[in-house]
UniProtKB/TrEMBL annotation:
The protein's name in its UniProt record: Cytochrome bc1 complex Rieske iron-sulfur subunit
Molecular function as annotated in GO: 2 iron, 2 sulfur cluster binding; metal ion binding; monooxygenase activity; oxidoreductase activity, acting on paired donors, with incorporation or reduction of molecular oxygen
Gene3D superfamilies with a match to the protein in the record: Rieske [2Fe-2S] iron-sulphur domain
Presence of keyword Iron-sulfur: yes
PANTHER family linked to this entry: CYTOCHROME B-C1 COMPLEX SUBUNIT RIESKE, MITOCHONDRIAL (PTHR10134)
CDD domains: Rieske
């Protein structure tokens, strides 16, 4: 649940949809992007679940390759390499969320996503 958001907001469902997140545990030694190591907690990485092509929810994760597939037009992203696009029409990597474990052991975000969430054709300069 994004901080400061409540179910009373009139655009709650829209905001929740934009905040959809994938949490995946990788072996730290399998993480290729060293920045990603700093943005993760003990191999747990957090990426936007919204495809950067036209915004479908991504949900097909392949554990052996660490690839995640968008079911709409088959864009494929490598979660062990900064969410980089390795196949398909998506033009940008999946935005990553920097996380850590707090004093109680709960994962928490340390800021916003690395890039605007969603399709590449809006919210970008
Ligand atoms: S919306 Fe994901 S590949 Fe088109």
């Amino acid at each position: 649940m994004p901080e400061g958001m409540s179910e009373e907001q009139h655009d709650f469902q829209t905001e929740i949809a934009k905040a959809a997140l994938m949490l995946v545990r990788l072996q730290p030694e399998n993480i290729k992007d060293k920045r990603e190591l700093d943005w993760s907690h003990e191999g747990i990485v957090a990426f936007s679940k919204i495809c950067t092509h036209v915004g479908c929810p991504i949900n097909l994760y392949e554990q052996q390759t660490h690839h995640v597939l968008c079911p709409c037009h088959q864009s494929t992203f490598d979660l062990s390499d900064g969410g980089r696009v390795i196949f398909g029409p998506a033009g940008h990597a999946l935005p990553q969320l920097r996380i850590r474990a707090n004093d109680q052991g709960y994962l928490e975000a340390m800021g916003d996503f690395s890039e605007p969430v969603g399709p590449a054709y809006w919210e970008r300069g």
